[in-house]
Amino acid sequence: MAAVTKATTTVTDKQPQQTPYHLDPDQTLKASRALLQHIQAETKRLQQASSKKSLLAPSSSDSEDDAADDATAPIWLTVTTKQHIVDKNRLKPSKIAVPHSLNTSPDLRICLITTDPQRAVKNVVADPAFPEPLKSRITRIIGYTKLKARYKTFEQLRELLSEHDIFLADDRIITRLPGTLGKVFYKGTSKRPIPVVIADLRKDKADKSKKSKEDGTAAPTSPLALAKEIEKAINAVPVSLRPGTLVAVRVGLASFKPEQLSENISTVVSKLIEKHVVKGWRNVRGIHIKGQSSFAVPIWLADDLWTGHEDIVTATTQDDLLEDEAEQGQKRKRNATSTKGPQAGSRKRLKVDGGKNGKSDPGPDAARARKSKLAAQKAKLFEEQV
């Protein structure tokens, strides 16, 4: 019996402990289903309301475009943390591969921004070994110098933004693009350039030339390797980090099924917390999902408002509390030699040593003499009245 009891205890100790620092798949699926149903119901309500306006009713082509826009409306994942994720803007976004891509349209228009000279990259894309379906979706390849020369005004940048669905850029120049493209691309838009590796890293390592990496003279990679990099960027979601306690990532579309959205959410949350959130799950305060104009649906909320026990300041005994109050009182006490306040500075010193000059404090002997003089005057007045 003793041996059996010992074996049972050993098996029990090996069982994994439950932890709240993970996503509940059932809760994630319920939240995804509720959000998608709300978006579909709201879209249907708006369509019915617009169809009642007979004079201002849109044409059939406009209605089809609106329906397509509603289907491609993004679903956002927001992660709030207890402490700042980063201290400064990271101009180079990272990528997280998701099970269900957000860019599956065969009519996807891709703009590829490269280093100079751009002709080398164009030759690689035009190579017969480059996949034809992907080649048909790359509508423009432009070098960094021509980008700066041709697109200078806001109108030109807006036109470039509207002509393409996704922008890819050589990772060697990705940090220069914010100054060139400006807030048209980097403020309130989901078309920020995504970095791709275009240079042949094997040749760079063989040459060991840092200058070739910076000025773009390194030879581009092979057609199949470049196509693989572009496919990887298309099938991933970009993550742009900025100072603060909030990061938002596109994880799906309104046309997704609840299961697809739930799988993307689980993948992005695990990779995002693992790569970018300091202290991991203990630094996460809340995780929500929301549509373009809907309320945020919570899928995970933290029980504690601090990341660790070292962040909590406590007093163990009553003596510690009294000592803290005494220290604070000493800090608040005004310095006697200060010149601020009605009772400070020279006025207070005159009151202390006024006995020497007889102006502010007459002293005890003078007070007794004055009292005796007043008493004699009162007695003399009393005798005269009698």
UniProtKB/TrEMBL annotation:
Ranges of Low complexity composition bias in the record: 1-12, 49-61
InterPro entries per record: Ribosomal_uL1-like, Ribosomal_uL1/biogenesis, Ribosomal_uL1_3-a/b-sand
Transmembrane portions of the chain: none
Region (Disordered): 1-27, 43-68, 325-386
Secretion signal span: none
Pfam families the record matches: Ribosomal_L1
Protein name, as recorded: Ribosomal protein L1
Native organism taxonomy: Eukaryota, Fungi, Dikarya, Ascomycota, Pezizomycotina
